[in-house]
Amino acid sequence: FSFRERRSSRGAGGSTQVVAGVSPDVPHLCCRPLMPLLDLDIGLLVLMAKGEDVLFCYEVLPGQPALSEVAQCRTESKAHGIALVPKPALDVLACEVMRVLQLTDNAVVPISYTVPRKSLQEFHEDLFPRCTGNVPGASARAWWAGDNGQVQRISLHPAHPPHPAFTSACIPSLLPESRALEPLPVEGQMEELDLSAGSSLSSPTGSLTSPLSATSGFASSPSQRSLQSILGPSSGFRHIQGTVLPRGTHFTNLKGLNLTTPGECDGFCTNRRRVAIPLLSAGGQVAILELSKPGRLPDTSMPTIENGAPVSDLCWDPFDPERLAIAGEDAKIRLWRVTPEGLQKSLVEPEAVLQGHTEKIYSIKFHPLAADILASSSYDLSLRIWDVRSRRQALLLKGHGDQVGRRVAGHGERLGKEKASGGSLRSPPPFVQGRACEEQEAGGLVTV
Length: 448
Hints:
Elements: E1 2-7, E2 16-21, E3 34-39, E4 44-49, E5 54-59, E6 68-74, E7 81-84, E8 96-103, E9 108-114, E10 131-132, H1 140-144, E11 153-154, H2 177-180, E12 191-194, H3 211-215, H4 222-231, E13 241-244, E14 251-252, E15 269-270, E16 274-278, E17 285-290, E18 295-296, E19 304-306, E20 311-316, E21 323-328, E22 332-337, E23 352-355, E24 361-366, E25 373-378, E26 383-387, E27 392-398, E28 418-419, E29 425-426, E30 446-447
Parallel strand pairs: 12-27, 14-18
Antiparallel strand pairs: 1-2, 2-30, 3-4, 4-5, 5-6, 7-8, 8-9, 9-13, 10-11, 15-16, 16-17, 17-19, 20-21, 21-22, 22-23, 24-25, 25-26, 26-27, 28-29
């Protein structure tokens, strides 16, 4: 594998985009899109190509221009998709630092990454720094007003109290209609932004500090730094091992998998409780599997979400574990709610339907820091930002000459939003602009 680095010119606080490509020496991977999974808390990047059976794990060290490969794991079958299981579901006493789910032709296979330690009965603070919690750093209203609050970090120590639960405030059945549909804190229903003509507004001046520098735990003394300059940076994960877990932990007998989703789609998605898998059936059905109940799936039909249109992408709300967003080929986004008990019967009525795109949607993503903010990109060459709380489109970004890849920034203003003096939303020019990857099939892009 080779990596091309794109570094912005915003000073020391600028972020670095590492585009994972495939070396010409590996011809059987050159035409396959790569699927990247980045764990910002510990600085581990997992790469896998669609249709291949090897996962590559790299460590991202602060201040280092290259990524260090720390592990390879060969699986039993070819992959149609991979997903990263949230940290609260890990077995921390077994020194499991990361778990990846692999979607194959007929199964969901867990791959566990562990760091060998002499004692497996105690909590190792160095392997498990405080990680991102499940309570948003800002509400939708606060984010639109310019608040870039960070998600509170939590400890994975088993002795600590349970993590607080969060449920979105936009559930129509639990809120009065007047509150559920309260207007956005801007004038008008929607602002349309044309990025092709530019803007007189300047880019936000605040620098973004890489999360790795604060969470990876690589602070060192002057003597240690001089030694590292000779021997290279130390790593707490140089002995990490990736292992396919026993068959009893797999979901097997999976039938009717949908293999026609766009290359930007990960094929399926997971949160700390459930896995959502699109099926190839009339009406765009989606199977919901409980992570706590692995095993062989029944031969008979199971309850599913009946989306009403073929699925092009789907994702769980990172804060509300019961909400699933599904983008359909009919250019609509439907929001579904799975009860805490799981899917007891098929769902046919969504919680809400978001409409605005004029062509097929190929990518959707919730905001990683703020509640009730959803981004979508479509073949109509637009990027649209939705305020899920009020169930309407809040922002339209136009001017792109080609497909818009999946990109959701943690910093609110970096998403192309500033408050103008007139009270409406406007956009500065893109703070980074460059030529896209040359691959014909879409792959993944992560900012490290």
